[in-house]
User: Fold this.
Amino acid sequence: MITLGFVLLVVAYLMGSIPTSVWIGRSFYGIDVREHGSGNAGATNTFRVLGKTAGIPVLLIDALKGWVAVMLPVWFLGGFDSPVMFENFRVTCGAMAVLGHVFPVFAGFRGGKGVATLMGVAFGMFPIAALCGVGLFMLVLLFTHYVSLGSILASIGYGLFLLLVEKVHHDASIIFAVMIPLLVILTHKANIQRLISGNESRTYLKKAGKREA
Assistant:
């Protein structure tokens, strides 16, 4: 059991390390997205640099990495004697996938901010709360056109929903609810500074809209 658990953690990290945006950009466009736009190897920068044809697959695959990571214990372990330990282990697998996305071994440890992978983890652990978070993200994006602001507010909303509505009680779940917004805020420090100074890039969902530099 211990050996299998360790293997699953390594698998979760390696799966998170799959640099979707980098591989798609290089294979189909001859471009490393990290050398353009914001310099991040994530879905948002892929949308900006390569458009939705590349951005949508990157978003879905990056989210899938997080979802699969928290499902690995369900598929291969079937649970521990202690439900709390099992919950803790699922959260740890999700954290390893996010760590892999941010510091991917397959791309020189230069990855993205982990938001899409976090979203996948969120759906795997608490899907109703995740749907509420996505809804909040879409509202913020529609009204402000700031992906970064939507991500930050959605992560905070997700954490509050877990704590106040679902009233999670396992230690790992409480830590998860607190750490997600903290991690998103920390990885968006530069975006927050640009938001405050009014220099943050906007993203428009409609074709007629134009992205600001």
The chain has one domain: 2-197. DSSP finds ten helices and no strands in the chain. Residues 208-213 have pLDDT under 50 and may be disordered.
